[in-house]
Automatic annotation (TrEMBL), chains A, B, C, D, E:
Listed GO CC annotations: carboxysome
Pfam families recorded: EutN_CcmL (PF03319)
Record keywords: Bacterial microcompartment, Carboxysome
InterPro entries, per database record: EutN_CcmL (IPR004992), EutN_CcmL_sf (IPR036677)
Record organism: Paenibacillus selenitireducens
Name under which the protein is recorded: Ethanolamine utilization protein EutN
Length: 90, 90, 90, 90, 90
């Protein structure tokens, strides 16, 4: 699972009907060394996230398990809003 | 999910019959920092997309859920045409 | 889905019996900018491909859907031979 | 499967209820050549791991198979604590 | 599917019981251009492989299909020992 920051949102009127009602947010993955900035991606919100929130994202087949509609063609879902992330040992 | 631009198309006469009737488009993924240009890939269209459209793409096992034929051996599907993509917070 | 060129083949006598009868080809993925050459990989042929053919490859769980035997432990399958690939808009 | 070190932990109060009761740990993947440090990621603990432990992580759809609740939207799980890792041949 | 060399092994006493009885080997993926050395990973052996063998590895959900126990939380399995790998066309 990936931690990132919600930095934007996406709208699409013409889309697969199975995506109706979902909120699409743009996530900027955290880079712990600031060397290899990973690309932004789009995730469906399932945690009430908003711009600026630090979020936990699940990708792959597990993503749609989070949604009420398991038939949604979605490969990334925001499953939580991060309260704290502690890196203790490096 | 990935945002990209439709930049081309692909034809294949000799193919798995389960792919018959599908439209294959070439997608150029957006790179937010223009540093690490990601490779183009091929996705099946399920949103009526055309050359030059900005599209939302689902990859992996979720891709074939979007299609009417869930037995299509497809790992990337265009599930929406993007109306607007707002990056608010960086 | 990925486009590549068939550049070789692989033989393995000692293998999972569920792979018996399959043809393993080495695929060199196309790189559109020739900067980040991606690594070759091995895919099972399901389109009658041969050395030098440009092919369409499906990866992940969708790959084995293409095969008659859905129990084959395979994560990449050649699902078509490309007739033309047009990049119209860059 | 990936070997890494547990370097931190994550808390999220507002989350998908199907994640309740799970422990989220931050894993730093081992890099064998120290050249391409891979990004840290978050995995659910299913082996009683703690900070500083070297762990074995399963990703993708196999991850949730490890958990008692197969409906957990999780894509990475710590499935073992590594006693020894021997690289014999290079 | 990936070709690599078995370079080591891993032991874990404290682990998900569904992993009991499996052999974990460390695989060094082949790099065809020696430029981007990919990271070593751990795969379960299902072909009787040993140190120094060149092996064929299946990743993702297809991996556990190879094992007798499809409930094993495993994302990479050695499915064959490579007899020959011919690159004919470059």
């Amino acid at each position: 699972m990936i931690v990132g920051e919600v930095v934007g949102s996406l709208w699409a009127t013409r889309k697969d009907k199975k995506l109706n009602g979902l909120t699409f947010l743009v996530v900027k993955p955290f880079s712990y060394d600031n060397q290899n900035q990973r690309e932004y991606f789009v995730a469906v919100d399932n945690a009430g996230a908003g711009i600026g929130d630090t979020v936990l994202v699940t990708k792959g087949s597990a993503a749609r398990i989070s949604l009420a509609n398991a038939d949604a063609p979605v490969d990334a879902v925001i499953v939580g809003i991060v309260d704290s992330l502690e890196i203790d040992h490096e």
